[in-house]
Every structure is written in structure tokens, then in C-alpha cells.
Amino acid sequence: EFCMSVSELICYCLYFKLDISSGVIIKRLEKFFRREWKRLFGEFNVSTAVQFTGYEYGIINLFEQFDGNRIIFVHNDMVSEIKQRNNQHLPTLKNAYCNYDTVALVTEDMRESASGGGGNMVVVPNCHDYKTVLKKSKMPVEFQPKTDSTISLGELLELLNSDTEKFITIGRFSPEKSHMRLIDAFKEYCVEYPDTNACLIIIGG
Predict the structure, then answer these.
(1) Which segments of the chain have a pLDDT < 50?
(2) Which of 41, 81, 103, 150 has CA atoms 20 to 30 A from the CA of 90?
(3) What pLDDT shows up at residue 110?
């Protein structure tokens, strides 16, 4: 947790909760995060700091005060996420994409949403543990205690073992995964091929 004075707490709330960003507030917060970095990491000799999640506006601002090579990842269309979930702070992102030394995009599609930043943008594709994926693909299908499904496990197994044409997608329910576009495309497919016995299975969370 951060350690802050009353005046720092007031500036913190004004900036992150009300988006008030006067020069005095920004300078006070920069000084605060610089001090917190030193308190948390001391004189530890680090050449590069990587903000991998791309979330947590406090941590993004903390890493921004690191005196070294700073890298921030962009995994999603953050502008869309802010509109739909209000789970990020837009001024923090804009500053980070300008001030971090490298902005690492997981796909080229992220470039437009992170545009406006002056940082060096590079595409760093996600790594996939394909061996584990292949291993798990041979395991029996099961529902975990928190699994929520529109059909029962028995119905799903019957469907998977049937001759029904199956379209399956796996991805969390976030805008950049374009589930709605896929649903619309599947509707068009069913209209174009009315005699096809097809189903769409969406797995996410």
C-alpha cells in the first residue's frame, strides 16, 4: 500500500477520481510517486521496469517515476474498456503512453487505441504455452464449481459428440475479442445456409 500525507491524498483523489489535473496537483503526485518508488525499492539496482498488466493506475504512475528504462504493455483497447467498464484512468494512460520509453502492444490492432502517445511503440505478440493447451485438449470436458453455462454439461457433451457443425471461440468477454461481431457473422451464416445444422459455442469469462 502507498503511504501518503493528507495533502497527497487530496491530490490523489482530485486527480484520479475527479480528473482535475492542475500543475500543482501533477507535481505533487510526481513527487509522491518518486518517493514511494524509493521507499519500496530503495537503491536496488534495476535497469528496466516493466508494467506488464497495463492496468492499476497507481502502479502505472509509480513505474513512470522509475529512473531507468520503462516499458508498459497494452493488452486491450483501453478506450473501449473505459467506456464499458470504467476500470481505468484515461489521463494516466495518455501520460504513460507518452512518457514510458517503450509501449509494448500485444497486437498491431492495439496501435490505434494507444495512439497519441509519443513513446516507442513495438508489437510483442503474446506467448502461448501450446504444449499445455494440447495436453489439456485431451482431458475430459468438465464444469468447475463456478462455471456458468446456458446448457447443462450433459447437453454440451451430447452436442460435442454429435455431427452438428460446431464453431467454437475462446476468449474473455471484452470488446476487443469481438464476440458480438462473431455472433452477427454466425447469424448471417445461418441465413445463407439455412439447411446447415450448426451451433456457435462461446467460451469465456
Answers:
(1) none
(2) 41
(3) 80
Q: Which three cell numbers stand for residue 98?
A: 507518452
Q: DSSP letters of 60-84? A: HHHHHT-SSEEEEEE-S-HHHHHHH
> Would you give the distance in Å from CA 101 to the centre of its chain?
20
Residue-wise pLDDT tens digits, 98-157? 899 999 998 887 887 776 555 688 898 878 888 998 999 899 999 999 999 999 999 999
Q: What is the dihedral of CA 48, 50, 51, 53, to 10 degrees?
A: 180
Pairing of the two strands 102-105 and 120-123: parallel
| Closest to 2 in 3D by CA, of 49, 46, 65 | 65
CA distances from 146 to 30, 143, 149, 150 (A): 42, 8, 10, 13
Grid cell of 73 as nine digits = 504493455
Q: CA angle 164-169-175, nearest 5°?
A: 140
Closest CA to 53 of 65, 40, 62: 62
